[in-house]
């Protein structure tokens, strides 16, 4: 997100004009929105994980690498749903 969104948006903000074309505008908007939602959902997943570890320590062994990977994939899937819906 930083590599794609920040340079293009910063340059456009300084110059006052979007110079990269319509396709790049749509792509940057999609990527920034996608990864912004992805970050929020990952933060939620970490919060739920920490809640389970602290309040229900007997469930901690069930949080495996497979569960963590599924959680990250689910976060990305939810994040991908947001910008794809018109």
TrEMBL record:
<dbReference type="InterPro" id="IPR017452">
    <property type="entry name" value="GPCR_Rhodpsn_7TM"/>
</dbReference>
<keyword id="KW-0472">Membrane</keyword>
<feature type="transmembrane region" description="Helical">
    <location>
        <begin position="17"/>
        <end position="42"/>
    </location>
</feature>
<dbReference type="InterPro" id="IPR000276">
    <property type="entry name" value="GPCR_Rhodpsn"/>
</dbReference>
<dbReference type="GO" id="GO:0016020">
    <property type="term" value="C:membrane"/>
</dbReference>
<feature type="domain" description="G-protein coupled receptors family 1 profile">
    <location>
        <begin position="1"/>
        <end position="86"/>
    </location>
</feature>
<keyword id="KW-1133">Transmembrane helix</keyword>
<feature type="transmembrane region" description="Helical">
    <location>
        <begin position="63"/>
        <end position="82"/>
    </location>
</feature>
<protein>
    <recommendedName>
        <fullName>G-protein coupled receptors family 1 profile domain-containing protein</fullName>
    </recommendedName>
</protein>
<dbReference type="GO" id="GO:0004930">
    <property type="term" value="F:G protein-coupled receptor activity"/>
</dbReference>
<dbReference type="Pfam" id="PF00001">
    <property type="entry name" value="7tm_1"/>
</dbReference>
<keyword id="KW-0812">Transmembrane</keyword>
């Amino acid at each position: 997100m930083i590599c794609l969104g920040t340079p293009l948006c910063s340059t456009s903000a300084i110059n006052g004009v979007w110079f990269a074309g319509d396709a790049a505008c749509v792509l940057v908007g999609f990527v920034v929105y996608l990864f912004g939602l992805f970050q929020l959902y990952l933060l939620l997943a970490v919060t739920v994980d920490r809640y389970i570890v602290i309040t229900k320590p007997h469930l901690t062994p069930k949080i495996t690498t497979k569960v963590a990977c599924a959680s990250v994939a689910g976060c990305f899937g939810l994040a991908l749903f947001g910008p794809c819906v018109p």
